[in-house]
Structures are given as C-alpha cells and as structure tokens.
Design brief:
The protein is α+β, with helices and mostly antiparallel strands. The protein contains twelve helices and ten strands. The chain is elongated and about 100 Å long.
Length: 379
Amino acid sequence: MHETVINKIRGMYFINRLRALYKKVRWECQKCKNASTMPQPPQMATLPAARIAAFERPFTYVGIDYFGPLFVAVGRRREKRWGVIFTCLTLRAVHIEVAHSLDTSSSVMAIRNFVSRRGYPREIFSDNGTNFKASEKIICENLKDTDWAAVVSSFDEVKWRFNPPGTPHMGGAWERLVRSVKKVLFEILPSTSFTDESLRSALSEVEFILNARPLTFVSLESSDDEALTPNHLLIGSSDGYKPIGSNTLSLRQRWQLTQQFADRFWHRWVREYLPVISRRTKWFVKKRPACVGDIVVIADQDLPRNSWPKGRIVNVVRAKDGQVRSAMVATKSGILHRPIVKIAILDVGTEQSKQTLESSFTGAGVLPTKNYGRAVSNA
C-alpha cells in the first residue's frame, strides 16, 4: 500500500528524496501512530519466591485452576463435571479434585478435600474467577457465617494472591499442567464414557503419571542418579515402589535416613533443576515503563483492533525490580486493571507524564496515594 502511494505521487510530482519524506510524514502522523502502536513487554522478572522455595514441604505454595467440563453418565443422562488442579509451585507436583459445579460451595469443598490430603498451604495463587474470589472471602477473610465458621477456622494464615485480569501467562505454572492433564487423559481413555467413579479413578491415574515425570535431565549413564520427579519427595520413589528396610535399624536411625533422603533431594533440586527454570529466552531489555497520565490502547484479543478501548493510566504497579507489570486504566466503561503486555502506549501523553519518564525508567518514583482496586505484583 505504501509503495502504491509513492508511485501515485511520483506520477504527479517530482519530489527529491520522496521515499524518505514519505516515511517522515508517516512517523509524524498521529493516526498512523495510533494504528501501528503495539504493547511493549517489560523486562522479564526474576522467579517469584514461591518458585524457588527449597526445603519447604510439598504444596506450601499452590496454584489453582479449573479445567473441563468433563461429561459423566448419571443414569440415562449426561452431566458436567470439572477438574480442579492444584500444583505445587516449587516441587511442580500435581493434585486433582473433581468439582460438580462452578459455584462457591464446590470450590470451597474442593479446597477442603485438598487440604485434608496435602495439608494447609501458605499461599494460594489463581486467576480472577468469580468462584475463587468468593472462596477467598470465605477462606482467608474468615467471614463470621454460621454455615462456614467451623470449616474455615484453620485458614486464618493462608494468603490468596490473584493475578491481574487478562494475564494467563502469569499463571503458566498451572496452565501448562492443565494441558498435560488433558493430553494424558485423552491418551489413556480417548473415547470412554465416564461415570463419577471412573472419572475420579482416571484423574487419580493422571495425577500419578504427572507426578512421575522427570524434572531434570534423564541421563543414560548407569552410574548417574535417577532423574528427579515430584514423586520422589511425595512417596519416596518415582514409581511408588517402597523398598523393604532393614530390621537392624533403630527408629531414630530410620528417621535420620528419611531426613537425609529429603535433604539429598533438595540439594539435587537446587543444583540440577533450579538453573533450568532460571533461564531467560526473551524480554531481556528494559522498556520505557508506563507512567501515570499516559494515553493508552488496551489490546483485547476478543475485539477487532479498531475497537480496542482507549483510556488514561491512573495508577501503576511496580515490581521489586522497579519494572511496571500492570496498571489501572480509566476508560469510558470504568477503571480496568490490565497487564503491561496488553497495553499499548500512544504518543499523545501529557507533559506531566513526559517529565516523569526519566525517573520512571530508572525505577524511581512512588505510587499515587489513591487506590483504585486490588493490585498484585507477581515478581
């Protein structure tokens, strides 16, 4: 299209350095700037503390998500069931529960079933699902409701952290495992019509298979140790085999051997697995961060590009490394909390935002005192 315009102008007028002049006009055209602007992802953050919490018991830091629906046969009718996946963010172990609906009661019961088998987590991470929001109010804020008082009394110390809306990449630790669950479930039972009992049994098999997956490089040398798996810390071996111990060991010696096994696992985890997940393959360079007062376009994959909402940034959320990860944007439909990877900054900012550009790029500055909603950093 651009060459067509240059060709038409050349046929009508002789202009020296026409191509360079045309590019300059395009770069100064506000309409062209608005049409070509793209979100600029900030520099990738370091791993959050929940991903590198070595020497903690399994499922201390947990990510939760739903998947499905899965259909089961109940008599002569088919009903929907949903899987609830709990993943240990440090060990990458998986726990799966079955929910009969998407309401708050099923969500709370699924979490209670998880806690009964795995213990209380210290922090829970999830997206902004309405059932998770309601469960957080019941579990973490400990509402004085007679129906729930006895159930949630032990959750006082649990913290629930929500990712910003529209940021599935911030929940990649469990989103990728949802795909693995679906793949294994389809491979072992591609066309089976489930009942409630068979679905629960199948998901238990999937849970065991995923917990037996290697986390580290599988060496073919016979002298090397077996690759680490989540099952090593959960049940003592990758395949569930429990060797018979010697009767000559006293109770204290058995306890010491168990502690030595756990310590050896975590030392290998730090030495072999941690360097693998610490690698960065993109987003190395710091970008110009969003500032309060910037005019932006919110990239919405569900809308055509010319229908993306526009607005002004009224608040930004900085990570510990000084980078802006999400922002509050005032639009005609209200205040929206969106990640920076889905915000495109237009070159029409106010003078105040331009003056704060230099200090913002170095990570200086403070947040505005006004609070427009919950803002959680994932770095």
